[in-house]
Design goal:
31% helix, Alpha-Beta Plaits, alpha+beta, 34% strand, two-stranded antiparallel ribbon, four-stranded antiparallel sheet
Length: 115
């Protein structure tokens, strides 16, 4: 099996809809990290203290052949086309371990949907 990691940075209020959309599209799980970030625009401040937007970083380890569908679902659920809505990218994984409990379910899904 070939895998990709999808890394998505989403607004906190879209975390649950994005996770649900990714799972509906075939993701079997997610790792959630809380993060702060800074983009092209300067951060706002209030009384000398910076007001930083919190982001959730969601990491999905998925099979290569369903990654595009998951990316589309994440983009829609996370409102990525809106200014500052979020972003996601994926990259190939050359080796993954610890997936033994999920391999059977992944293989069955692949047979049902793609073969």
């Amino acid at each position: 099996m070939r895998f990709k990691v999808i890394l998505a940075m989403v607004k906190e209020e879209y975390q649950d809809p994005v996770i649900q959309a990714a799972k509906k599209a075939g993701a079997t799980g997610v790792t959630i990290l809380n993060a702060r970030g800074e983009g092209i625009h300067e951060q706002k401040s209030f009384l000398g203290m910076s007001v930083e937007a919190q982001r959730e970083v969601l990491l999905f380890l998925v099979e290569d052949f369903i990654s595009d569908g998951i990316m589309d679902a994440i983009s829609n659920a996370g409102h990525f086309l809106e200014h500052g809505g979020g972003m996601a990218f994926s990259f190939a994984i050359d080796r993954a371990i610890g997936l033994e409990s999920q391999i059977k379910a992944l293989e069955e899904e692949a047979k049902e949907n793609y073969f």
